[in-house]
Amino acid sequence: MQAPSASVLLIDDDVEFTALLGRFLLQEGFNVAAAHEGEHGINEALSGRHAIAVLDVMMPGLNGFEVLRRIRAQSTLPIVMLTARGDDTDRIVGLEVGADDYVAKPCTPRELTARLRAILRRAHGTSTGAGKTLNIGPLAMWPEQRRAEWSGQPLQLTSTEFTLLEVLARNAGRTVSKNELSTIGLGRPLARYDRSVDVHLSSIRHKLGALADGRSCIQTVFRKGYQLIKE
Predict the structure, then answer these.
(1) Does the residue 2 lie in any domain?
(2) Cβ neighbours of residue 208 closer than 8 Å, sequence gap 6 or more
(3) What total of structural domains would you count in the chain?
(4) What's the number of CA atoms in the CB half-sphere (13 Å) around residue 70?
(5) DSSP characters over 112-129
(6) pTM of the entire structure?
(7) Which of 95, 112, 136, 174 is most buried, most CB within 10 Å of its CB?
(8) By the 8 A CB rule, do 167 and 174 touch?
(9) CATH number where 48 lies
(10) Residue 86 covered by a domain
(11) How many CA atoms lie within 13 A of 98 on its CB side?
């Protein structure tokens, strides 16, 4: 579990909601900071003082997507997006820009807190054999350090992207179902019509280089899942 003093940054112009959520998180042992507009949120997210951030899509001035883009240009801080319930477009765009996960509003503080805990557990590398280096072709991963390279060059992966790629790497040469990827990588069973795994893996593919024959090292296995090619 995460350290009790882990700091959560709430970036949301809804003062009443952030106060409610902040009180709940404090009771759960977190430290809490809030920013009610985009520029302040960006500065806080890049300060290095926080373990994770919650970012609302709908904000005046800089919206959540632009805030996320600017944070991602400099940081891999885990970020959960708050999206409108039923708005699949916001969810997909948020994941494409670099969100680790999303929660639909309105949501309960307990639901959001559970999601934050799951992301922080994964970010702290609690997987079995975390100390061993994984080497699959040009890919090298150091799970304990949450660090990865492709052909000797550092990979800038979000926490969720790292976890999903680690799952594939530990099962290289075997097809991993989307449900397994969702359960381990996102901390929840795959829901109907949920494209989160697909969007994250699309981003990972974009960040990885191609194999010598031009193929992506992550292959889609029709109606079964995904496989990391084992050379």
Answers:
(1) no
(2) 139, 150, 155, 216, 217, 218
(3) 2
(4) 16
(5) HHHHHHHHHHHHTT-STT
(6) 0.85
(7) 95
(8) no
(9) 3.40.50.2300
(10) yes
(11) 20
Task: Check whether residue 144 and residue 208 sit in a common domain.
Answer: yes
The amino acid sitting at 114 is A
Number of residues assigned to the chain: 231
Residue ranges making up the domain that contains 189: 134-228
Please report the sign of the dihedral spanned by the C-alpha atoms of residue 87, residue 92, residue 97, residue 98. positive
Q: Using an 8 Å Cβ cutoff, are 71 and 46 in contact?
A: yes
Identity of the amino acid at 111: E
| pLDDT tens for the 231 residues of the chain, in order | 444 479 999 999 999 999 999 999 999 999 999 999 999 999 999 999 999 999 999 998 999 999 999 999 999 999 999 988 667 888 899 999 999 999 988 888 998 999 999 899 887 754 444 458 999 999 999 998 899 999 999 999 999 999 999 999 999 999 999 999 999 988 889 988 889 999 999 999 999 988 888 899 999 999 899 999 986
Q: Supply 52's token pair.
A: 């994770």
Helix (H) or strand (E) run with residue 165 in it: helix 159-170
Of 103, 123, 143, which residue is a domain's last? 123
Question: Distances in Å between the alpha carbon of 49 and those of 62, 180, 193, 228?
Answer: 22, 33, 36, 35
